[in-house]
Specification:
Elements: E1 4-10, H1 18-29, E2 35-40, H2 45-48, E3 54-57, E4 84-87, E5 93-96, H3 99-108, E6 113-118, H4 120-131, E7 136-140, H5 156-177, E8 180-185, H6 192-201, E9 205-207, H7 215-224, E10 226-227, E11 230-231, E12 233-238, E13 250-251, E14 262-263, H8 266-276, E15 283-287, H9 299-318, E16 323-328, E17 331-336, H10 337-342, H11 352-359
Parallel strand pairs: 1-2, 1-6, 6-7, 7-16, 8-12, 8-15, 9-12
Antiparallel strand pairs: 2-3, 4-5, 10-11, 13-14, 16-17
Bound molecules: 6-O-phosphono-beta-D-fructofuranose.
């Protein structure tokens, strides 16, 4: 009997739980007699490069992978089949659409189906390829939790735990030195990591992209936390947060194929603005950065990632292409890729968790 082949790949920024998804796919596939799993290196690049970079994934290869952070397949958040970076003769860069060439190559390689594990950018690529006839299933990943149509993406809870642990540590040093601490966390346009960790860690101020902040509100909260010079204040700020009337803080990376502005620096800006507004207490900034994406996934994310992997493979077996597996408590369901990427999942300022944060006295800056 000829084996059928499913190709798995990971795209976008890495995230704890990617390997657990890969393991779930391979373990579920191994229960069928007629399916083989191959992994593509660095998103679709493994197919687009010459020589092709793919590897066979069997049960031995994925043993114990539910614990391991990162992705054994490697990943990239640059380029892709629809926007492959090409260097012009004058040294500048442009992009080329190599999607048709890639689809022909996949056919030649005997790939019957593809599982693309990635965030919004990756699932947009999935949709584009599905519309061109590829049998593809999406799996939602990102620490930002900004994909709609799924209650949670895997990796998010691990990032929240890392941020919460960091707040727990900052609280003791802030109290010892009577300091204001500003902790900058990831999340791009979404404030989910900041909001969740601020509540879990008992922060005093939480600033998110969805609610532009008024510096005077933050200053007032800081002063409330001090009795003359004694006191402390913990501020959690999302990297995409912005003051009322202002924009985001970030830089162009200049990296070929990188289509985002690299967010970062808002904590230092806020510290300077607070000083300028008359705050005299010591202020220190902590930027967690990629610590939030590294290391082992917590149990919740291992379980969710495993469920996504098993179901994604079952979607392949059932021929449910053009869909993304999604967590709708208490079920793992399928949603169309089109719906999945239509709108980002952002914090609604009127939502339950914002209400809870304000209910325990967290200043949201509005
Ligand atoms: O989307 C995930 C994310 O970690 C964001 O929270 C962050 O802004 C971005 O990726 C960082 O990307 P890079 O690893 O390319 O710097």
């Amino acid at each position: 009997m000829a084996l059928k082949r499913v190709m798995v790949l990971t795209g976008g920024g890495d995230c704890p739980g990617l390997n657990a998804v890969i393991r779930g796919i391979v373990k579920r596939a191994s229960q069928e007699n007629d399916w083989e799993v191959v992994g593509c290196i660095e998103s679709f690049n493994g197919v687009l490069r010459e020589p092709t970079e793919i590897e066979i994934l069997d049960e031995k290869r994925v043993e114990g992978l539910q614990i391991q952070g990162g992705t054994i397949l490697g990943t990239t958040n640059k380029g892709g089949p629809f926007a492959w970076p090409v260097k012009n003769s004058d040294g500048t860069w442009t992009t080329a659409d190599r999607s048709d060439e890639m689809l022909r190559k996949l056919q030649y390689m005997g790939i019957d189906a593809v599982i693309n594990i990635g965030g919004d950018g990756s699932q947009r690529i999935s949709l584009g390829l599905y519309n061109k006839g590829l049998n593809i299933v999406g799996v939602p990943k990102t620490i930002d939790n900004d994909l709609s149509m799924t209650d949670y993406t895997f990796g998010f809870q691990t990032a929240v735990q890392i941020c919460t642990d960091a707040i727990d540590k900052l609280v003791t040093t802030a109290a010892s030195h009577n300091r204001v601490f500003i902790m900058e966390v990831m999340g791009r346009d979404a404030g989910w990591i900041a909001l969740h960790s601020a509540i879990a860690g008992g922060a005093d101020v939480c600033l998110i992209p969805e609610i532009p902040y008024d510096i005077q509100k933050i200053k007032a909260k800081i002063e409330k936390r001090y009795n003359k010079r004694r006191g402390n204040c913990i501020i959690v700020i999302a990297e995409g947060a912005k003051p009322v009337g202002g924009g985001v803080t970030g830089t162009e990376t200049g990296e070929v194929g990188y289509q985002h502005i690299k967010l970062g620096g808002i904590a230092e800006k806020l510290a300077a603005d607070l000083k300028a507004a008359g705050v005299e207490h010591d202020i220190r900034c902590t930027i967690l950065g990629h610590l939030q994406r590294g290391g082992t996934p917590i149990a919740f994310d291992r379980i969710l990632a495993t469920e996504f992997g098993v179901r994604a493979m079952e979607f392949v077996l059932e021929g449910r292409f053009g869909q993304m597996v999604a967590y709708h408590h208490p079920d793992i369901i399928g949603v169309s890729l089109e719906e999945a990427v239509r709108n980002p999942h952002l914090v609604d300022p009127n939502e339950r968790l914002v209400h809870t944060a304000k209910g325990v006295g967290i200043e949201m800056g509005d």
